[in-house]
Protein backbone atom coordinates (compact mmCIF):
# COMPACT_ATOMS: atom_id res chain seq x y z
CA UNK A 1 0.00 0.00 0.00
CA UNK A 2 1.35 3.49 -0.85
CA UNK A 3 1.83 6.06 1.87
CA UNK A 4 -0.88 8.33 0.45
CA UNK A 5 -0.81 12.09 0.85
CA UNK A 6 -0.05 14.16 3.96
CA UNK A 7 -1.76 17.52 4.38
CA UNK A 8 0.33 19.74 6.65
CA UNK A 9 -0.91 23.06 7.99
CA UNK A 10 1.69 25.70 8.83
CA UNK A 11 4.07 24.13 6.33
CA UNK A 12 5.50 27.39 4.97
CA UNK A 13 8.08 27.60 7.77
CA UNK A 14 9.45 26.15 10.99
CA UNK A 15 8.22 22.82 12.29
CA UNK A 16 5.61 22.36 9.56
CA UNK A 17 8.18 22.82 6.78
CA UNK A 18 10.39 20.18 8.40
CA UNK A 19 7.43 17.78 8.61
CA UNK A 20 6.86 18.37 4.89
CA UNK A 21 10.49 17.50 4.18
CA UNK A 22 10.57 14.38 6.37
CA UNK A 23 7.23 13.05 5.15
CA UNK A 24 8.23 13.64 1.51
CA UNK A 25 11.38 11.64 2.24
CA UNK A 26 9.14 8.85 3.51
CA UNK A 27 7.28 8.85 0.20
CA UNK A 28 4.13 10.76 1.11
CA UNK A 29 2.61 13.13 -1.41
CA UNK A 30 2.45 16.52 0.28
CA UNK A 31 -0.23 19.21 0.49
CA UNK A 32 1.39 22.11 2.36
CA UNK A 33 -1.06 24.68 3.72
CA UNK A 34 -0.27 28.21 4.90
CA UNK A 35 -0.86 31.83 3.86
CA UNK A 36 2.51 32.56 2.25
CA UNK A 37 2.05 31.43 -1.35
CA UNK A 38 5.67 32.18 -2.33
CA UNK A 39 7.15 30.04 0.41
CA UNK A 40 4.76 27.19 -0.36
CA UNK A 41 5.73 27.27 -4.04
CA UNK A 42 9.44 27.26 -3.21
CA UNK A 43 8.91 24.37 -0.79
CA UNK A 44 6.95 22.43 -3.41
CA UNK A 45 9.68 22.86 -6.03
CA UNK A 46 12.39 21.75 -3.63
CA UNK A 47 10.53 18.73 -2.26
CA UNK A 48 9.38 17.43 -5.62
CA UNK A 49 12.92 17.78 -7.02
CA UNK A 50 14.67 16.24 -4.02
CA UNK A 51 12.22 13.47 -3.21
CA UNK A 52 10.30 12.88 -6.44
CA UNK A 53 6.89 13.16 -4.76
CA UNK A 54 3.84 15.16 -5.79
CA UNK A 55 3.56 18.40 -3.83
CA UNK A 56 0.39 20.46 -4.23
CA UNK A 57 0.52 23.77 -2.36
CA UNK A 58 -2.77 24.92 -0.88
CA UNK A 59 -2.44 28.60 0.06
CA UNK A 60 -5.02 29.39 2.73
CA UNK A 61 -5.59 31.64 5.70
CA UNK A 62 -7.16 29.07 7.98
CA UNK A 63 -8.86 31.74 10.06
CA UNK A 64 -10.93 32.75 7.03
CA UNK A 65 -14.11 30.74 6.58
CA UNK A 66 -13.82 30.34 2.78
CA UNK A 67 -10.17 29.29 2.88
CA UNK A 68 -10.75 26.88 5.74
CA UNK A 69 -13.71 25.37 3.92
CA UNK A 70 -11.46 24.51 0.95
CA UNK A 71 -9.19 22.55 3.28
CA UNK A 72 -12.14 20.85 4.98
CA UNK A 73 -13.58 19.88 1.61
CA UNK A 74 -10.29 18.33 0.61
CA UNK A 75 -10.12 16.39 3.88
CA UNK A 76 -13.65 15.08 3.30
CA UNK A 77 -13.36 14.25 -0.40
CA UNK A 78 -9.78 13.36 -1.29
CA UNK A 79 -9.55 9.61 -0.87
CA UNK A 80 -5.76 9.75 -1.23
CA UNK A 81 -5.22 11.70 2.00
CA UNK A 82 -3.84 9.49 4.73
CA UNK A 83 -2.25 11.93 7.19
CA UNK A 84 -3.15 15.33 8.66
CA UNK A 85 -0.47 17.29 10.52
CA UNK A 86 -1.94 20.25 12.40
CA UNK A 87 1.02 22.55 12.81
CA UNK A 88 -0.34 26.03 12.03
CA UNK A 89 -0.25 28.02 15.23
CA UNK A 90 0.82 31.34 16.63
CA UNK A 91 2.51 32.30 19.86
CA UNK A 92 1.81 35.23 22.18
CA UNK A 93 3.61 38.58 22.16
CA UNK A 94 3.22 39.23 25.92
CA UNK A 95 1.67 37.83 29.09
CA UNK A 96 -2.12 37.98 29.31
CA UNK A 97 -2.34 41.31 31.16
CA UNK A 98 -0.10 42.98 28.60
CA UNK A 99 -1.95 41.61 25.57
CA UNK A 100 -4.72 43.03 23.39
CA UNK A 101 -7.75 40.81 23.85
CA UNK A 102 -8.34 40.68 20.09
CA UNK A 103 -4.88 39.19 19.58
CA UNK A 104 -5.53 36.50 22.17
CA UNK A 105 -8.89 35.74 20.55
CA UNK A 106 -7.19 35.31 17.16
CA UNK A 107 -4.54 33.04 18.65
CA UNK A 108 -7.20 30.89 20.29
CA UNK A 109 -9.16 30.74 17.06
CA UNK A 110 -6.19 29.37 15.07
CA UNK A 111 -4.65 27.19 17.78
CA UNK A 112 -7.94 25.66 18.96
CA UNK A 113 -10.99 26.21 16.73
CA UNK A 114 -9.22 25.63 13.44
CA UNK A 115 -7.32 22.60 14.73
CA UNK A 116 -10.58 21.22 16.13
CA UNK A 117 -12.48 21.62 12.84
CA UNK A 118 -9.72 20.04 10.77
CA UNK A 119 -9.24 17.18 13.23
CA UNK A 120 -12.95 16.33 13.46
CA UNK A 121 -13.32 16.36 9.68
CA UNK A 122 -10.20 14.26 9.14
CA UNK A 123 -11.18 11.83 11.91
CA UNK A 124 -14.57 11.21 10.34
CA UNK A 125 -13.17 10.86 6.82
CA UNK A 126 -10.27 8.61 7.84
CA UNK A 127 -12.52 6.45 10.07
CA UNK A 128 -14.93 5.87 7.20
CA UNK A 129 -11.95 4.71 5.10
CA UNK A 130 -10.51 2.68 8.00
CA UNK A 131 -7.13 4.26 7.39
CA UNK A 132 -5.29 7.42 8.36
CA UNK A 133 -3.43 9.33 11.02
CA UNK A 134 -3.55 12.74 12.68
CA UNK A 135 -0.58 14.49 14.28
CA UNK A 136 -1.41 17.53 16.41
CA UNK A 137 1.35 19.90 17.49
CA UNK A 138 0.71 20.96 21.09
CA UNK A 139 3.50 22.18 23.40
CA UNK A 140 5.08 21.30 26.73
CA UNK A 141 3.38 24.39 28.15
CA UNK A 142 0.19 22.30 28.09
CA UNK A 143 1.76 20.73 31.20
CA UNK A 144 3.04 23.99 32.73
CA UNK A 145 0.20 26.51 32.50
CA UNK A 146 1.75 28.77 35.15
CA UNK A 147 4.93 29.37 33.18
CA UNK A 148 3.77 31.19 30.05
CA UNK A 149 0.99 33.23 28.47
CA UNK A 150 -2.25 31.78 29.89
CA UNK A 151 -4.22 31.75 26.64
CA UNK A 152 -1.40 30.04 24.73
CA UNK A 153 -0.92 27.41 27.46
CA UNK A 154 -4.64 26.72 27.63
CA UNK A 155 -4.85 26.44 23.83
CA UNK A 156 -2.12 23.80 23.90
CA UNK A 157 -3.76 22.00 26.85
CA UNK A 158 -6.83 21.75 24.63
CA UNK A 159 -4.76 20.16 21.86
CA UNK A 160 -3.32 17.62 24.29
CA UNK A 161 -6.64 16.72 25.95
CA UNK A 162 -8.52 16.60 22.66
CA UNK A 163 -5.94 14.32 21.05
CA UNK A 164 -5.91 11.98 24.04
CA UNK A 165 -9.70 11.98 24.04
CA UNK A 166 -10.10 10.97 20.41
CA UNK A 167 -7.35 8.36 20.44
CA UNK A 168 -9.50 5.72 22.11
CA UNK A 169 -12.48 6.33 19.86
CA UNK A 170 -10.48 6.31 16.64
CA UNK A 171 -8.19 3.35 17.22
CA UNK A 172 -10.80 0.67 16.38
CA UNK A 173 -11.40 2.50 13.10
CA UNK A 174 -7.76 2.18 12.06
CA UNK A 175 -6.93 5.83 12.71
CA UNK A 176 -3.75 6.68 14.64
CA UNK A 177 -3.44 9.96 16.54
CA UNK A 178 -0.49 11.66 18.21
CA UNK A 179 -0.05 14.84 20.22
CA UNK A 180 3.47 16.26 20.01
CA UNK A 181 4.69 18.42 22.89
CA UNK A 182 7.78 20.35 21.81
CA UNK A 183 9.75 22.50 24.20
CA UNK A 184 11.51 25.57 22.80
CA UNK A 185 12.24 24.79 19.16
CA UNK A 186 14.35 27.01 16.91
CA UNK A 187 11.89 28.49 14.39
CA UNK A 188 10.66 31.90 13.29
CA UNK A 189 7.85 31.77 15.86
CA UNK A 190 9.85 33.79 18.36
CA UNK A 191 10.74 36.56 15.94
CA UNK A 192 7.13 36.75 14.79
CA UNK A 193 6.05 37.09 18.42
CA UNK A 194 8.72 39.74 19.06
CA UNK A 195 10.63 37.46 21.46
CA UNK A 196 14.45 37.48 21.46
CA UNK A 197 15.43 33.79 21.15
CA UNK A 198 18.92 34.72 22.40
CA UNK A 199 17.39 35.33 25.84
CA UNK A 200 16.44 31.64 26.12
CA UNK A 201 19.15 29.34 27.55
CA UNK A 202 20.62 27.50 24.53
CA UNK A 203 20.47 24.14 26.32
CA UNK A 204 16.67 24.51 26.32
CA UNK A 205 16.31 25.01 22.56
CA UNK A 206 16.00 22.05 20.19
CA UNK A 207 16.66 22.30 16.46
CA UNK A 208 13.44 21.87 14.46
CA UNK A 209 14.92 18.92 12.51
CA UNK A 210 15.77 17.04 15.70
CA UNK A 211 12.33 17.79 17.14
CA UNK A 212 10.46 16.47 14.12
CA UNK A 213 12.71 13.40 13.73
CA UNK A 214 12.11 12.50 17.38
CA UNK A 215 8.38 13.06 17.02
CA UNK A 216 8.17 10.84 13.96
CA UNK A 217 10.10 8.16 15.87
CA UNK A 218 7.40 8.45 18.56
CA UNK A 219 4.74 8.24 15.85
CA UNK A 220 6.34 5.06 14.49
CA UNK A 221 6.21 3.61 18.01
CA UNK A 222 2.48 4.35 18.17
CA UNK A 223 2.80 6.91 20.97
CA UNK A 224 -0.32 8.97 21.64
CA UNK A 225 1.74 11.64 23.37
CA UNK A 226 5.32 12.40 22.40
CA UNK A 227 7.56 14.75 24.40
CA UNK A 228 10.73 14.89 22.30
CA UNK A 229 13.13 16.02 25.02
CA UNK A 230 11.85 13.78 27.84
CA UNK A 231 14.51 11.12 28.44
CA UNK A 232 12.80 9.34 31.32
CA UNK A 233 9.46 8.20 29.89
CA UNK A 234 8.52 6.84 33.33
CA UNK A 235 7.94 10.43 34.50
CA UNK A 236 5.17 10.80 31.92
CA UNK A 237 3.72 7.38 32.78
CA UNK A 238 3.68 8.33 36.47
CA UNK A 239 1.77 11.53 35.71
CA UNK A 240 -0.76 9.69 33.57
CA UNK A 241 -1.18 6.94 36.15
CA UNK A 242 -1.71 9.50 38.92
CA UNK A 243 -4.38 11.19 36.80
CA UNK A 244 -6.14 7.90 36.11
CA UNK A 245 -6.00 6.96 39.80
CA UNK A 246 -8.28 9.93 40.51
CA UNK A 247 -11.03 8.46 38.31
CA UNK A 248 -13.01 6.51 40.95
CA UNK A 249 -13.24 9.59 43.19
CA UNK A 250 -14.23 12.30 40.74
CA UNK A 251 -17.99 11.82 40.57
CA UNK A 252 -19.73 10.67 43.74
CA UNK A 253 -23.08 11.29 45.44
CA UNK A 254 -21.55 12.84 48.56
CA UNK A 255 -19.31 15.93 48.72
CA UNK A 256 -15.90 15.25 50.23
CA UNK A 257 -15.82 15.45 54.03
CA UNK A 258 -13.70 18.64 53.98
CA UNK A 259 -16.57 20.47 52.26
CA UNK A 260 -19.22 19.32 54.74
CA UNK A 261 -21.56 22.20 55.61
CA UNK A 262 -23.78 20.26 58.00
CA UNK A 263 -26.91 21.21 56.01
CA UNK A 264 -27.16 17.82 54.26
CA UNK A 265 -29.25 17.78 51.05
CA UNK A 266 -31.87 20.31 52.30
N1 LIG B 1 8.82 26.97 18.14
C1 LIG B 1 8.54 26.53 19.37
O1 LIG B 1 9.32 26.71 20.34
C2 LIG B 1 7.29 25.75 19.61
C3 LIG B 1 7.16 25.05 20.82
C4 LIG B 1 6.01 24.33 21.06
C5 LIG B 1 5.00 24.30 20.12
N2 LIG B 1 5.13 24.99 18.96
C6 LIG B 1 4.02 24.94 18.00
O2 LIG B 1 4.49 24.47 16.75
C7 LIG B 1 3.64 24.95 15.72
C8 LIG B 1 4.50 25.51 14.60
O3 LIG B 1 5.21 26.64 15.08
P1 LIG B 1 6.65 27.05 14.57
O4 LIG B 1 7.51 27.15 15.75
O5 LIG B 1 7.06 26.19 13.44
O6 LIG B 1 6.36 28.55 14.11
P2 LIG B 1 6.36 29.26 12.69
O7 LIG B 1 7.66 29.04 11.99
O8 LIG B 1 5.92 30.66 12.97
O9 LIG B 1 5.24 28.48 11.88
C9 LIG B 1 3.87 28.75 12.02
C10 LIG B 1 3.19 28.32 10.75
O10 LIG B 1 1.78 28.57 10.87
C11 LIG B 1 1.34 29.22 9.70
N3 LIG B 1 0.19 30.05 9.97
C12 LIG B 1 0.12 31.08 10.87
N4 LIG B 1 -1.10 31.64 10.80
C13 LIG B 1 -1.79 30.98 9.85
C14 LIG B 1 -3.09 31.09 9.31
N5 LIG B 1 -3.94 32.05 9.74
N6 LIG B 1 -3.49 30.24 8.34
C15 LIG B 1 -2.63 29.30 7.88
N7 LIG B 1 -1.40 29.12 8.35
C16 LIG B 1 -0.97 29.96 9.32
C17 LIG B 1 2.55 30.03 9.23
O11 LIG B 1 2.54 30.27 7.83
P3 LIG B 1 2.04 31.62 7.10
O12 LIG B 1 2.56 32.78 7.87
O13 LIG B 1 2.62 31.47 5.72
O14 LIG B 1 0.55 31.53 7.09
C18 LIG B 1 3.69 29.07 9.53
O15 LIG B 1 3.86 28.17 8.46
C19 LIG B 1 2.70 25.96 16.36
O16 LIG B 1 1.46 25.34 16.60
C20 LIG B 1 3.39 26.28 17.68
O17 LIG B 1 2.46 26.69 18.68
C21 LIG B 1 6.25 25.70 18.66
- The CATH homologous superfamily is named NAD(P)-binding Rossmann-like Domain
Largest sheet: 7 strands, parallel
* Unreliable stretches covering 5 or more consecutive residues: none
CATH topology: Rossmann fold
N-to-C order of helices and strands: EHEHEHEHEHEEHEHEH
What does this structure look like?
This protein is an alpha/beta fold and 266 residues long. It has one domain: NAD(P)-binding Rossmann-like Domain (Rossmann fold, 3-Layer(aba) Sandwich). Helices cover 45% and strands 14% of the residues. It contains eight helices and nine strands. It has helices spanning 14-25, 37-51, 65-77, 101-129, 150-170, 189-192, 208-220, 233-245; strands at residues 5-9, 29-34, 58-59, 81-86, 132-137, 175-180, 185-186, 206-207, 225-226. A seven-stranded parallel beta sheet has the order 3-2-1-4-5-6-9, sandwiched between helices. A two-stranded parallel sheet has the order 7-8. Strand 7 (185-186), helix 6 and strand 8 form a beta-alpha-beta unit. Helix 1 crosses helix 7, helix 3 (65-77) packs parallel to helix 4 (101-129) and helix 4 packs parallel to helix 5 (150-170). The radius of gyration is 20 Å and the shape is globular. It starts with a strand and ends in a 21-residue tail after the last helix. NADP nicotinamide-adenine-dinucleotide phosphate binds at residues 9-16, 34-36, 39, 60-63, 87-91, 110, 137, 139, 182, 184-185, 187-189, 192. This is SDR family oxidoreductase. Pathway: Lipid metabolism; fatty acid biosynthesis.
Amino acid sequence: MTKGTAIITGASSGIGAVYADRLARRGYGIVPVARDRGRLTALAERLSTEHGVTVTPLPADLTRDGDRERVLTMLRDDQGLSLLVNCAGIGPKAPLLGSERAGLDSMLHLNVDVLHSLTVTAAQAFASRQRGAIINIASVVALMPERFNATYCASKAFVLAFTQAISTELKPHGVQVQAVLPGFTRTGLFERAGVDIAAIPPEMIMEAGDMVDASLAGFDRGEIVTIPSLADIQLWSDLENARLELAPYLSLKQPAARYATGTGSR
